[in-house]
TrEMBL record:
Taxonomic source organism: Candidatus Kaiserbacteria bacterium CG10_big_fil_rev_8_21_14_0_10_43_70
Name under which the protein is recorded: Uncharacterized protein
Domain Ribonuclease J C-terminal: from-to ranges: 268-369
Domain Ribonuclease J beta-CASP stretches: 32-157
PANTHER family: RIBONUCLEASE J
InterPro entries (UniProt xref): RibonucZ/Hydroxyglut_hydro, RNase_J_2, RNase_J_b_CASP, RNase_J_C
Amino acid sequence: MLMDSTAVWKPGWSIPERNVFETFEEIIPNAKGRLIIGTFASQLERLMKIVRITEGCGKKIVVDGRSMVTNIGIVRELGILKHKDSTVIPISAMHEYPPEKLVILATGAQGDQYASLMRIGNKNHKYIKITPDDTVVLSSSVIPGNEIAVQRLKDNLSRQGAHIVTFNTSDVHASGHGSAEEAKWIHQQIRPKFFIPQHGHHFMLRVHADLIQESIDIPPENIAIPDNSSVIEIQDKGTKIVTLKEKAPDAIRVVEGQNITELSGVLMRDRKELSKEGFCVVVATIDRRTGKLHKSPDIISRGFVYLRENTELMNQTRLIISKQVNVMFGRGKHPSMDDAKAQLSESVSRFLLQQTQKRPIVIPVIVSI
């Protein structure tokens, strides 16, 4: 048996979804202003319950976020969700209704950068601006790794005056990952001969392995605790499982045009730097006989500064290039091109950082004529 291990370290039972329904039956009718509910678009049962409660108390639903709109539309088309046509209104028609009559279903409870809630929090949403009477319910737990993004989202919404409700303060979310007692119950019902805990950090897998040995009689050698890329082999006609020393390829691969390659750390670092600070190409044309510049250095900038508005900075940068060329090639010196480019890049980068507090990628080009 392979089994999810994400929440088995939590003692007891997880709360059932009916507790969440009861909470929304209390929150939705009593909201004094707009109610904005952020949850997973895949939580169809919860979404449908929210729509029914909202319709039942005479309020209107606004659905915002592509995946949310798509999923609500699918269950409506299939006849699984039934509501009056007037219950769900276009987001552009929100202004026609008083705030206390509106419930907004939004994507982005995990702090997703371009989702509805994050755009609201960043004040970038075309239709929704937070007011002090708004209540935002984050109907989800925080997926490991999203803690900072979710905290930033809550802070941004709070600064604008919203009242925040989370799973920590109210039963607005029931986890899809079973806690310890659910796991024990499944162990006892299935009583597997072999067990491989999966889906979770390694300590969670270890906790799960210990838990199943508390639940049922299973030999430790019949349990394999894997890491990413582990290869577990079934041997001796299914009588034992063995974790091999060999590892499966697990590097991230990217598809670019017609090429499929492993993700390069250096490549991704350069692309991130380009996206943040841009780049600057400096071209130094040198007379190989004298070691002096043949002409004024050329500078090409993209995503760093607008050249026409920074002529003084560019002129100063040309002086830095000229001085560095004199140091490297003056008095008959003949450094290797690689060394010369490295020194030129370093001097220009240092100068630009001092002047602008930015670190564009500097690409040096030395032409010898």
